[in-house]
Amino acid sequence: MREPLEIPVARFAPSPTGPLHLGSLLAAVGSYLDARANGGRWLVRIEDIDTPRVIPGCADQQLRTLEAFGFEWDGEVVFQSTRFDAYRATLADLRARGRTFRCSCSRKDLTGIGEEGGYPGTCRDGPAKAGPTSLRFRVGDGPVHFDDAFLGPQVFDLAACGDVVVERRDGLPSYQLAVVVDDAWQGVTRVVRGADLLTSTPWQIDLQRAAGLPTPSYGHLPLVVEADGGKLSKSARAVPIDPAAAPALLTSTLTLLAQTPPPDLASGSVKDVWNWAIAHWRPQALAGRRAVDVRVGRQPSRNHAENCGSP
Ligand code: GLU
Fold it and tell me: Residues 6 or more apart from 149 whose CB is under 8 A from it?
């Protein structure tokens, strides 16, 4: 008898630091369609460990917004704030494997890496300065390769990008650490998210390898930017998406995702939009698109290639 094919497991993982906006809607819609069009499960995880930035009540509001837009998630919502023991266990494991070191460098001390001279590795043999330290993960040698579902083959030189923080100076686990622990624990096999996280992916893959965790497949969706290619203006980013306009907003998000919804879809119901979108999902239309113009869904003028994230 043939083994049943593995069901893809995808997730949407908002941080409750502000209401969902157009960029978050695009990530949610892209990962939902990628999962549902492939018969997959779709999980929601609230990434609420950056406690100084978490806004009380925001997670609830985000979940209500997702419901109003017709998203149906599988299983219980996971809150990262309930998972500190798991993050501590992985930190202890990485430490025991000799892959971490205390570092006194601030983000400012390390600006410009990846551009000139690469990463200096200042504290690898001990903190260079007195005072507070973070814990960094010592990256492996050699480049990290992965095949992005939409952007194609990617290669990052982590030795030049630097050793990434896994425990912050304030003692909180970092985003990079928590996301790797939870993607593995939740059995996530497909990560579809915004291209702003493309430069995080090589660190996450390197962390998975060091901690003996599986690597999901990755696909990064175009960043929503202004017509000139610049960052989406603060005001546009801050505009919460209005559930009353859900069918129209979902339809324009499909256009931003290079899909071609029929014009009358915007005046139908949320259910109509999803039925059409799942049946007609064409991921190949996203090939090579790193950014998309917020007004028309066209490719903006500026390129958004980056070599390194902020370690
Ligand atoms: N929590 C992250 C954010 O809101 C997303 C994490 C991820 O998708 O890996 O930007």
Answer: 34, 190, 192, 217, 218, 219, 283
